[in-house]
Design a protein that fits this description.
single chain, 150 residues, mainly alpha, Ferritin, 5 helices
Length: 150
């Protein structure tokens, strides 16, 4: 596989996973009764949408066809479907637990991509920058979860 093909494939995989997280945060924001969580989830969904746009732009620059939808079978999607059933009870602790599970999944996907030595330096740099944002979101949710357990 050529470097460019590998780059496009890796980026499209991250786009799909990131779109799953956008969908999950959008659902969580709709379903929580906690105003500060609505603000947090809406903000994280917006940040993730911006990441998707940056990744899609790079795919297009590389001559690929950027994904524009999530992966119905992805782990993040399943987690966020679990989230949907949890939020029906509007239990903030359960919502945060499910959101954190989704965050663990997306963080792992980005870490896998960062470990791919077949990617071009430019794409590795882009993924690294996107990862910084994903990790910050992950850590924020993790910290909220831990504070709720305390």
């Amino acid at each position: 596989m050529s470097e460019s093909t590998n780059d496009v494939s890796a980026l499209n995989s991250l786009i799909a996973t990131t779109l799953d997280s956008v969908e999950g945060y959008t659902e969580a924001a709709k379903d929580t009764k906690n105003a500060s969580f609505v603000t947090l989830f809406t903000g994280l969904a917006s940040e993730r949408r911006q990441l998707v746009t940056r990744l899609q732009q790079e795919v297009a620059t590389l001559g690929g066809e950027p994904k524009d939808e999530g992966t119905a079978l992805a782990g993040a999607h399943r987690v966020f479907l679990n989230l949907k059933s949890v939020v029906m009870g509007h239990d903030d602790k359960a919502i945060i637990n499910e959101v954190e599970a989704g965050e663990d999944h997306i963080k792992a996907k980005y870490e896998d991509a960062l470990g791919d030595r077949e990617l071009s330096p430019a794409v590795q740099t882009l993924i690294s920058s996107a990862y910084d944002s994903v990790k910050a979101g992950h850590d924020e949710i993790r910290d909220i979860k831990h504070s709720m357990e305390g």
